[in-house]
Amino acid sequence: MVEKKNLLLGICGSPRKQGTEYAVEYALNYAAEKFGFDTEFWSVRNKKINFCIHCDYCIREKKGCVNKDDMEDLYSKLEEAKFLLFGTPVFQGNLSGQLKTVMDRCRAIVAKNPNVFKDKIGAALAVGGDRSGGQEIAIRSILDFYQQNHIIPVSGGAFGANIGASLWSRDMGKEGIEKDEEGLRTIRKVIKRLVEFL
Protein backbone atom coordinates (compact mmCIF):
# COMPACT_ATOMS: atom_id res chain seq x y z
CA MET A 1 0.00 0.00 0.00
CA VAL A 2 1.38 3.40 -0.97
CA GLU A 3 1.31 5.87 1.90
CA LYS A 4 0.01 9.34 1.10
CA LYS A 5 2.44 11.70 2.74
CA ASN A 6 -0.18 14.07 4.07
CA LEU A 7 -3.16 11.85 4.80
CA LEU A 8 -4.80 12.78 8.10
CA LEU A 9 -7.10 10.09 9.47
CA GLY A 10 -9.63 11.30 12.00
CA ILE A 11 -11.11 8.61 14.23
CA CYS A 12 -14.21 9.46 16.21
CA GLY A 13 -14.64 7.35 19.32
CA SER A 14 -18.25 8.33 19.97
CA PRO A 15 -21.21 6.04 19.34
CA ARG A 16 -23.37 9.13 18.77
CA LYS A 17 -23.54 11.73 16.02
CA GLN A 18 -23.04 14.67 18.33
CA GLY A 19 -20.26 16.82 19.74
CA THR A 20 -17.24 14.57 19.28
CA GLU A 21 -18.12 13.76 15.71
CA TYR A 22 -18.57 17.46 14.99
CA ALA A 23 -15.21 18.26 16.61
CA VAL A 24 -13.29 15.61 14.63
CA GLU A 25 -14.93 16.71 11.36
CA TYR A 26 -14.19 20.36 12.21
CA ALA A 27 -10.52 19.43 12.63
CA LEU A 28 -10.40 17.53 9.35
CA ASN A 29 -12.14 20.31 7.44
CA TYR A 30 -9.79 22.92 8.88
CA ALA A 31 -6.76 20.81 7.99
CA ALA A 32 -7.96 20.25 4.44
CA GLU A 33 -9.22 23.74 3.65
CA LYS A 34 -6.47 25.74 5.35
CA PHE A 35 -3.43 23.53 4.84
CA GLY A 36 -4.20 21.08 2.03
CA PHE A 37 -4.20 17.84 4.00
CA ASP A 38 -5.83 14.81 2.47
CA THR A 39 -8.31 13.70 5.10
CA GLU A 40 -10.44 10.71 5.95
CA PHE A 41 -13.04 10.28 8.67
CA TRP A 42 -13.83 7.03 10.46
CA SER A 43 -16.26 6.58 13.33
CA VAL A 44 -17.03 3.81 15.77
CA ARG A 45 -20.71 4.72 15.37
CA ASN A 46 -22.77 1.82 14.03
CA LYS A 47 -19.67 -0.36 13.76
CA LYS A 48 -19.21 -3.91 15.00
CA ILE A 49 -16.00 -3.90 17.01
CA ASN A 50 -15.31 -6.94 19.17
CA PHE A 51 -13.21 -6.72 22.30
CA CYS A 52 -9.62 -7.91 22.25
CA ILE A 53 -9.68 -11.18 24.19
CA HIS A 54 -5.89 -11.45 24.44
CA CYS A 55 -5.93 -14.85 22.76
CA ASP A 56 -2.49 -14.15 21.23
CA TYR A 57 -3.58 -15.32 17.77
CA CYS A 58 -2.01 -12.14 16.38
CA ILE A 59 1.29 -12.89 18.13
CA ARG A 60 1.42 -16.52 17.05
CA GLU A 61 0.20 -16.21 13.49
CA LYS A 62 1.32 -12.70 12.47
CA LYS A 63 -1.78 -12.52 10.24
CA GLY A 64 -3.82 -9.86 12.01
CA CYS A 65 -6.69 -10.37 14.42
CA VAL A 66 -8.78 -13.48 15.01
CA ASN A 67 -11.85 -11.22 15.07
CA LYS A 68 -13.28 -10.40 11.66
CA ASP A 69 -15.38 -7.26 12.04
CA ASP A 70 -15.33 -3.58 11.11
CA MET A 71 -11.78 -3.17 12.39
CA GLU A 72 -10.65 -4.85 9.16
CA ASP A 73 -11.59 -1.68 7.29
CA LEU A 74 -9.85 0.54 9.82
CA TYR A 75 -6.58 -1.40 9.80
CA SER A 76 -5.83 -0.49 6.18
CA LYS A 77 -6.66 3.17 6.86
CA LEU A 78 -4.34 3.25 9.86
CA GLU A 79 -1.55 1.76 7.79
CA GLU A 80 -2.00 4.33 5.02
CA ALA A 81 -2.29 7.48 7.12
CA LYS A 82 0.73 9.56 8.07
CA PHE A 83 -1.20 11.70 10.56
CA LEU A 84 -3.69 10.46 13.14
CA LEU A 85 -6.29 12.36 15.14
CA PHE A 86 -8.16 10.33 17.76
CA GLY A 87 -11.20 12.04 19.22
CA THR A 88 -13.21 10.80 22.17
CA PRO A 89 -16.13 11.80 24.31
CA VAL A 90 -15.47 11.62 28.04
CA PHE A 91 -17.12 8.55 29.57
CA GLN A 92 -16.77 8.25 33.36
CA GLY A 93 -13.78 10.58 33.41
CA ASN A 94 -11.82 8.92 30.61
CA LEU A 95 -12.02 7.92 26.95
CA SER A 96 -14.93 5.96 25.55
CA GLY A 97 -15.01 2.19 25.75
CA GLN A 98 -15.38 2.07 21.98
CA LEU A 99 -12.16 3.99 21.36
CA LYS A 100 -10.31 1.97 23.98
CA THR A 101 -11.39 -1.18 22.16
CA VAL A 102 -10.09 0.22 18.86
CA MET A 103 -6.76 0.92 20.51
CA ASP A 104 -6.64 -2.55 22.10
CA ARG A 105 -7.38 -4.16 18.76
CA CYS A 106 -4.44 -2.37 17.15
CA ARG A 107 -2.27 -4.96 18.88
CA ALA A 108 -3.02 -7.22 15.93
CA ILE A 109 -1.45 -5.00 13.29
CA VAL A 110 1.52 -4.19 15.52
CA ALA A 111 2.11 -7.92 16.03
CA LYS A 112 2.02 -8.38 12.26
CA ASN A 113 4.33 -5.41 11.63
CA PRO A 114 6.04 -3.87 14.69
CA ASN A 115 6.87 -0.74 12.68
CA VAL A 116 3.37 -0.17 11.30
CA PHE A 117 2.95 3.04 13.32
CA LYS A 118 6.57 4.14 13.49
CA ASP A 119 7.05 7.89 12.89
CA LYS A 120 3.40 8.62 12.23
CA ILE A 121 2.25 11.84 13.89
CA GLY A 122 -0.64 11.67 16.34
CA ALA A 123 -2.86 14.24 18.02
CA ALA A 124 -5.84 13.93 20.32
CA LEU A 125 -9.06 15.70 21.24
CA ALA A 126 -11.61 15.07 23.96
CA VAL A 127 -15.12 16.39 24.50
CA GLY A 128 -16.61 16.58 27.97
CA GLY A 129 -20.05 17.56 29.11
CA ASP A 130 -18.45 19.32 32.09
CA ARG A 131 -15.71 21.93 31.85
CA SER A 132 -13.37 19.66 33.82
CA GLY A 133 -14.95 16.31 33.16
CA GLY A 134 -11.90 14.19 32.36
CA GLN A 135 -10.75 15.67 29.06
CA GLU A 136 -7.07 15.74 30.04
CA ILE A 137 -7.14 12.18 31.33
CA ALA A 138 -8.80 10.99 28.11
CA ILE A 139 -6.26 12.86 25.99
CA ARG A 140 -3.38 11.43 28.03
CA SER A 141 -4.72 7.92 27.45
CA ILE A 142 -4.62 8.51 23.70
CA LEU A 143 -1.13 10.03 23.85
CA ASP A 144 0.07 7.05 25.92
CA PHE A 145 -1.18 4.74 23.16
CA TYR A 146 0.76 6.80 20.62
CA GLN A 147 3.98 6.67 22.64
CA GLN A 148 3.72 2.92 23.18
CA ASN A 149 3.36 2.33 19.45
CA HIS A 150 6.11 4.66 18.15
CA ILE A 151 3.67 7.35 17.03
CA ILE A 152 5.05 10.84 17.59
CA PRO A 153 2.52 12.56 19.90
CA VAL A 154 1.91 16.27 19.41
CA SER A 155 -0.26 18.91 21.04
CA GLY A 156 -1.19 22.49 20.30
CA GLY A 157 1.50 23.74 22.65
CA ALA A 158 1.45 26.03 25.66
CA PHE A 159 -1.26 28.57 26.40
CA GLY A 160 -4.42 26.76 25.56
CA ALA A 161 -3.80 23.33 24.06
CA ASN A 162 -1.04 21.95 26.25
CA ILE A 163 -1.60 18.25 25.56
CA GLY A 164 -4.30 18.35 22.90
CA ALA A 165 -7.66 19.83 22.03
CA SER A 166 -10.09 19.99 24.94
CA LEU A 167 -13.72 20.87 24.35
CA TRP A 168 -16.71 21.53 26.58
CA SER A 169 -20.13 20.66 25.22
CA ARG A 170 -22.13 21.70 28.31
CA ASP A 171 -24.06 18.48 27.66
CA MET A 172 -25.53 20.09 24.54
CA GLY A 173 -23.89 17.80 22.00
CA LYS A 174 -23.03 19.31 18.63
CA GLU A 175 -24.69 22.61 19.52
CA GLY A 176 -22.49 22.94 22.58
CA ILE A 177 -19.30 22.35 20.59
CA GLU A 178 -20.34 24.83 17.91
CA LYS A 179 -20.56 27.45 20.68
CA ASP A 180 -17.29 26.49 22.36
CA GLU A 181 -15.01 28.92 20.57
CA GLU A 182 -12.15 28.34 23.00
CA GLY A 183 -12.39 24.59 22.40
CA LEU A 184 -12.43 25.07 18.63
CA ARG A 185 -9.36 27.29 18.97
CA THR A 186 -7.55 24.37 20.65
CA ILE A 187 -8.37 22.23 17.62
CA ARG A 188 -6.90 24.84 15.30
CA LYS A 189 -3.75 25.03 17.42
CA VAL A 190 -3.31 21.25 17.24
CA ILE A 191 -3.76 21.21 13.46
CA LYS A 192 -1.24 24.03 13.06
CA ARG A 193 1.26 21.91 14.93
CA LEU A 194 0.61 18.95 12.62
CA VAL A 195 1.36 21.24 9.68
CA GLU A 196 4.95 21.55 10.87
CA PHE A 197 5.44 17.87 10.00
CA LEU A 198 4.22 18.17 6.40
Structural features:
alpha/beta, 17% strand, Rossmann fold, six-stranded parallel beta sheet, 198 residues
Task: Present the secondary structure layout.
Elements: E1 7-12, H1 19-35, E2 38-43, H2 57-61, H3 71-80, E3 83-89, H4 97-105, H5 107-112, E4 121-128, H6 135-148, E5 152-153, E6 165-168, H7 173-179, H8 181-195
Task: State the gist of this model.
The chain has helices at residues 19-35, 57-61, 71-80, 97-105, 107-112, 135-148, 173-179, 181-195, and strands at residues 7-12, 38-43, 83-89, 121-128, 152-153, 165-168. It is an alpha/beta fold and 198 residues long.
Q: Can you offer a commentary on this structure?
A:
The chain is of the alpha/beta class and 198 residues long. It has one domain (7-195): Rossmann fold. The chain is built from 8 helices and 6 strands; from the N terminus they run βαβααβααβαββαα. It has helices spanning 19-35, 57-61, 71-80, 97-105, 107-112, 135-148, 173-179, 181-195, and strands at 7-12, 38-43, 83-89, 121-128, 152-153, 165-168. Strands 1, 2, 3, 4, 5 and 6 form a 6-stranded parallel beta sheet that branches. The model has no long low-confidence stretch (mean pLDDT 96).
